[in-house]
Amino acid sequence: MFSLSWEQPFYFYCLPLAVLPWLVQNTTKTVAWQGFIPLDVWSRYLHLMARLLISVTIVFLLLALADPYIPEQTIERTRQGAEFVLLVDRSRSMDDRFARRPLNTLPRKTDVKRSKREVAKDYLAEFVRRRDDDRFGYVFFSTKATEILNLSYNKQAILATINAGGLGKGISKTDIVQALDLAISMFEDQTYRGSRNILLISDGGQILTAEQKNMLKQRFQQMKINLYWIYLRSMRGMTLDPSDDDSMLWIDMPERKLHEFFKKLGTPYQVFEAGSLEEFSHAIDEIDKQQTQALIVDERIPKQYKHDIFLWLALFTLFPIVLSRLLTLWGATHHQKH
Amino acid sequence: MRVSYQKRILFTAISMLIAFTLIAAALWFPLVPRDVDITDSIFVLDITDSMNVKDVEIDGEQVTRLEWAKQFTKETILAMPCGSHAGLAIFSESRSLILINPVDVCTTYHDLTQMLEQINPHMAWARSSEVSKATYTAIKQAKKIQPVPSIVLMTDGHESPPLNPKLFPKFAGTPGQVHGVLVGIGGDELLPIPKTNPEGDLDGFWGVNEVMQKDVYASMRGDLQEYYENKPRTEHLSSQKKSHLATLAARVGFAFLSSPDDPNELVDVIKSESEPIVQTVDYDLYAWFSGIALVLILLVFLPYSLFSRKRNPSSVHD
């Protein structure tokens, strides 16, 4: 567990400098005859000790300079939350104005003037900000699905990705099958940590082939993924579930077909039909409320620098040396006076 | 010259005492605020077909221009001081698409590099490559981000369909309002461009008759026939279009950097081009204190006698 990494490992090349005290003595005194010096075992030990302490001090200082640190670590904790892949439609139709009033009604001041994509961006960002412990991934799709952000705990990264999704114009049409397939595959090779969700944000439907239906069904059940669909209604009044006052035109809408299929998916599925800002924010609130199961989260422990330990050690080993040197100096000057 | 014993022990005692004090200072001296220039930038990577030409090198290995662009972007992000922000975008057709708004290069390094890895030719949503217009859309979108980032566009400058030399796409903005750098990628030799099918997989090379050799305007007019008859039909081949990139850079008020070797060079250009934000970071001076302490201790144990004997052999006997 306690493994140090080194920021400036080239200081290790200087470690041989620690032998200098054993090779060089600059504070020796010329004595006329060796015999004058009394044989003192204690002083010999002290001398060895002093050299050793200096060597060790040099080593400690070099180790401190090499800047040891414990790298950023992740620890698994259990929190309340869920894992979400945000599957965001980036087709051209998302450039259209959100909750546009029907052409035969008078404009009101409360009309939203922003595109569906901008509105979706704002609410997603709001949702992500609220959910502290969740892990988010981001996929956008048009005719091709592109995984932009792997499942990540980094709030800054996911928010910046969501905000980037609100810029510019849409690309082309949509292919929901490929998009869902890619979103599911983001959970593959991942240990099961807790509730897995795909949050599909789209304004269109698609008629699927039997083959595609089977494939999606199998994949969703196998991976235990919940599906949420925030459907940005393009036609006012139309609902995904058939109602009594249906217009003839709505019966075969691809959105309805897709909704029918999702209901038979065999995995928890919920749709939110957002036709106004209130409905959209309600949908986001509802998902927020539902997803509070236990989730294993990785908690990051930031990089910690440990050079202080070696500085302390160097301070302790150098202290007796400083004392002895001051004593020597005091002794020499004192001796001279006599 | 030989220093007397008295002076030697005096010097030793003093340097040891100072070294001790410096180590204590290394431990307890407060962090010093220091100003660092940081920048916000968005790296726009060209992912059009011509970027699949293998005429650049990473460590002596021939790689595609796109791989080089990805590697160089990664190194540049790494070379930026913490606190700097970097975003990523791709361009295909005539538009730049921002994938992530600028985020801190240190705390989000992992996510940024992962996203960078994902960028590939499959992401292209159309097969044309209109560099000038893509630059304009990048500028337009950058203005919507606060603070406005600089744009670093990595491209070979290959325009397909070709531009009419007299009818440059009009730039609606003010040159220099958004800062940026065009980074030119690719060799000088004209090479065949790998072709991608609608799924984005490589599938042969573009043939001479498969691409537009004339710009749209000229192909509809008869009076320029003569000019185009003498012009070589090379639009299916690609090299780094330096003069075009330089013209484009001048038009939008960007700098132009052709095939840089060192990511630090690009970081410096980004800094000098944009208006860096000064950020104060707390700086630990411990390395200076402990370094000087170490030098002082080593000074005591340097083999001076070796030097002094060589220089003044007589002084040994004083």
Automatic annotation (TrEMBL), chain A:
Keywords linked to the UniProt accession: Membrane, Transmembrane, Transmembrane helix
Signal peptide (UniProt feature, chain positions): none
Record-annotated membrane-spanning stretches: 48-70, 309-332
Lineage summary: unclassified sequences, metagenomes, ecological metagenomes
UniProt cross-references to SMART domains, sorted A to Z: VWA (SM00327)
Descriptive protein name: VWFA domain-containing protein
Residues in coiled coil: none
SUPFAM superfamilies referenced in this protein's UniProt entry, alphabetically: vWA-like
Organism: marine sediment metagenome
Every VWFA domain range: 83-287
Cited InterPro entries: VWF_A (IPR002035), vWFA_dom_sf (IPR036465)
Pfam families the UniProt entry points to: VWA_2
UniProtKB/TrEMBL annotation, chain B:
SUPFAM superfamilies per UniProt: vWA-like (SSF53300)
Pfam families in the cross-refs: VWA_2
Keyword Transferase attributed: no
UniProt KW Membrane keyword: yes
VWFA domain residues: 42-158
TM regions (residue ranges): 9-31, 285-307
Keywords of the record: Membrane, Transmembrane, Transmembrane helix
Protein name, per record: VWFA domain-containing protein
